[in-house]
Amino acid sequence: MAPASVADATAGAGGGGSAAVPSPPGSGRPRPRRGITATRPWVAALFLLPALILLGALVAYPIIYTVKRSLYDADGSGFVGLKNFGTVFSDHGILTAVRNNVIWVVVAPAVATALGLVFAVLTERVRWGTAFKLVVFMPMAISMLAAGIIFRLVYEQDPSQGVANAVVVAVHDTFTDNAAYPGARPRPNSDLKPTAGGSFTSASAAASGTAADLPLVGIPANKVPKGAADAKPAAPEPGKVTGTVWLDFRPGGTGKPGVIDPGEKALSGVKVQAVKDGKVVASAKSGKDGTYSLPAKAVGAQLRLPGSNFSGKYEGINWLGPTLVTPSIIVSYVWMWAGFAMVLIAAGLAGVPRELMEQARVDGANEWQVFRRITVPLLAPVLVVVTVTLMINVLKIFDLVYIIAPGNTQQDANVLALQLYLSSFGGGDDQGVGSAIGVILLLLVLPVMVFNIRRLRKEGRR
Amino acid sequence: MHRLKGKPFTATAGGASHRRATRIALAAAAASALVLSASACGGGGSDDNGKDKKTSSPTASASGSAAGGGENLQLPDLHGQKLEVAAVWTGPEQKNFQKVLDEFDKRTGAKSTFVPTGDSQSTFLGTKIQGGAPPDVAFLAQNGVLHQFADKGWIKPLGPAAQAELQKNFSKGWQDLGAWKGKQYGIYAKVSNKSMIWYNTAAFSNAGATEPKTWDDFLKTAETVFDSGTAPVSIGGADGWTLTDWFENIYLSQAGPEKYDQLAAHKIKWTDPSVKDALTTLGQLFSKTDLIAGGTKGALGTDFPKSVTQTFTGNPPAAAMVYEADFVSAFISANTKAKVGTDAKEFAFPAVGSGKAPVVSGGDVAVALKDTPAAQALLTFIASTDAAKIWAQGGGYLSPNKSLDFAAYPDDVQRSIAQSLIGAGDDFRFDMSDQAPAAFGGTKGEGEWKDLQDFLAKPSDVAGAQAKLEADAAKAYGG
């Protein structure tokens, strides 16, 4: 009813508006009351006009055009009916985007609101609460793009650049032993062949009397321990297996493979095992000059350098890999928006009557019960507002995904808004499909909007 | 408003004489173009070109345009005219090109501005054109885009003056690349030689490695470098296009130019055995994580700039070798302390199997999006040897302009790259992914870029990679 009368008024406003407005000052003075009531629809229309024109040009027209465009092909010349929507729902990449959007809508607002609630309730009781709130709210002042770039760096694979992996690697390395020479290995065509678990095992059996030397390569000059001694041939000991572990490389490639040339460095602390029929019968570590010596039991056994000597450096977590990329980006979103949730909820919290809480405490409720039974129910309207606002916000998430996801996992992190952009401008060059995705996004946002408006109306009536 | 409107008006009124001068210059250039094409029909060859230069210069000086300025190049007076030039370049490449624009402004009085287009170039230009405000001149990074735009009538054919310069200075292979359906649209003014591997000389001498000539030698060299404790090869796997370039070099050398052309036109499928061979060869490197700086994960997280800088910084560096085109030298000079020619050198991409060493090239083609005298004048200037000379002096630039004196290049490395490119004559092949539709060969996270990144992550799955490539290619080429 109301919209219809507004529309009528608008239709008439163009002709009569300009004439009607100047008349009241001149003729309306004797009977001001009647004058105002008579011109009311016109005035209302006049005041509404700029807004209506703006809304029409910037909201209504684009929506209608998008719906129309979604029924045409890539060129915009041929009518294709609902074919574009068929494409959307059969394209594997777009389905991933739909799935990711569902994850986003479910997880991101819930986590952000929950964190905001916790922050709001806790900061109320802390002396430095305001300072804390300021810090948590700070990310809101950063644009999505900047936040994206920040988190791109945070999730960098290289621990020396990405802070997330720096933490993970530091923690990991504190609790596990590091390999002495990560990445090292024997020459590919030497006696030592790669075996299970990253270890290397000699093909021939060890004998006493002749030195079983174990040459390794692939260790950067700056990773050889400082002050490492030159490698020495091991002295044969009767009844024992001896040999040298050393870095079989001299700058300029001047050394002979498999021969201890002068100047080649000894590798100390390398574990050497003697293996008979798959069982370790003896083990030793190479000394300062690279020599090791195994007891008589080792005679006739194969020599093995276990993988623990070389196990590659722990590389941290592949945050932006196919499996973790969406959760990682959601974390960055929560980092931005938890502050927003916190501020709104804190404002709501200020309006909660203290007496109820006091009452509950007097009645013997513990803090958790007060929070669970009093605070949360009283805050429910605010929580709903925050969650719904965030949901609408999350449905159109684009920037963070576009910036943070690297090229090879962009499709794994895909969301509808990004796919809309990619389909219409980023290589797909099919604005028909892009518009179809736009229409779908609109349909997804609508129920949330309707819910929000209804709730607002109810609130207004109260 | 009034003042703004008035200004250009008075400029044109007062500039009537300039207009005439322009027309004379154009006529002279057109005449020399006729002479040129006639002589080219007669027998061609550099000798004829030399003669033409001599004959055309008196005519040009006789027409006597005041704005001309340098040598025998005639440019109209464009005082008060504004010109917008769009290209993908940023950083040192953009700065370098700005010098060319500045010289153009100095000679003609025009005011030109440079607009970087970003990675999704066809989109950037497409929306600008559809919005009715295209830049005057654009450098298209992809050959396929030239065809696409020409079909839509978005780009204008070269004027006679620009064509004359083009025919004077460029070999037929390069001219043809800028033509479509019998019309000459573009000038390949800035090209790259994408068949070279750069290496850190200190890392090589430390390892006692030498420049390999064949793929097998290359892998052996990589092993030798690994022994020394330096990771051998740096791969910028975060940028899909570096991987397409790897593939193209191997494919061109192994399968030969005919197959290359067929695959580029999608006349053979990506499931072809020749593709399998090429991917298997590439897999010999990709599957040996020891040989890749940072391993597979590291390579996928390394973008092109980092893949270069990590090869030429630190002692020992993070990698000894990095593959990419000649423009790497500009990156090295700008972003590292290494000196090109002493600390950083290059060798030609090794020949694979029994094939010849490949010469894959890419380039940016200058086209006019508006048919204005200013746009045509800029194209004429871009095709000229004068522009190429200024451009070349900045480094990181390679011109297919055969009239350009090699002395213009700033260092021996750049000079030798240019010599090998000009020396290849018309035997080079143009970057395959740049010939493909953008959705397949030119979009982050899609098509060939994404498929080869997946292949880098899992080099054992050759058949799977082929199937995905074919599926994406079929979609992008339209069946």
TrEMBL record, chain B:
Keywords: Signal, Transport. Transmembrane segments: none annotated. Residues 56-65 have a biased composition (Low complexity). Residues 1-40 form the signal peptide. InterPro entries: Bact_solute-bd_prot1, SBP. It comes from Actinacidiphila epipremni. Belongs to the bacterial solute-binding protein 1 family. Residues 43-75 are annotated as: Disordered. Gene3D superfamilies: Periplasmic binding protein-like II. Pfam families: SBP_bac_1. This is Extracellular solute-binding protein.
